[in-house]
Design goal:
By secondary structure, the protein is an all-alpha fold. The protein has six helices and no strands. The relative contact order is 0.11.
């Protein structure tokens, strides 16, 4: 298995609520993290990594965890600002996608729900 394939496996497990398989010997946690970070999905993969028996070495694990917390904080700030913009639109009679598609859910809600579980 290649590093990117294991990253995809971690993402799949998070999305489907499954426990991920332990990392194969030929896969590098560091490379998985770096690929995920490059594509801004390492925060989601971290939620699967937390379920593993054999986690990355402590320095990498803590960096990954910190990256996850920063992504949740960043998304929270963006959500707050988005709500301010939407309020300004509404005050000026402008409809938004949220008005047309109220069932849309934000990544922040998914990540925070998972983090609190």
């Amino acid at each position: 298995m290649r590093d990117y394939e294991y990253l995809i496996h971690l993402l799949y497990c998070f999305i489907h609520g499954e426990t991920p398989k332990e990392k194969p010997d030929e896969v590098s946690f560091e490379k998985v993290y770096l690929i995920g970070k490059e594509h801004e999905i390492s925060n989601i993969a971290f939620l699967s990594v937390e379920k593993l028996e054999n986690k990355p070495e402590p320095v990498l694990y803590n960096e990954w965890k910190l990256n996850y917390y920063f992504s949740v904080e960043r998304d929270s700030r963006q959500s707050l600002e988005r709500n301010r913009v939407i309020s300004a639109f509404h005050e000026n009679g402008i409809r938004t996608l949220r008005d047309v598609y109220p069932e849309m859910i934000s990544l922040r809600k998914i990540l925070i729900k998972q983090w609190r579980a």
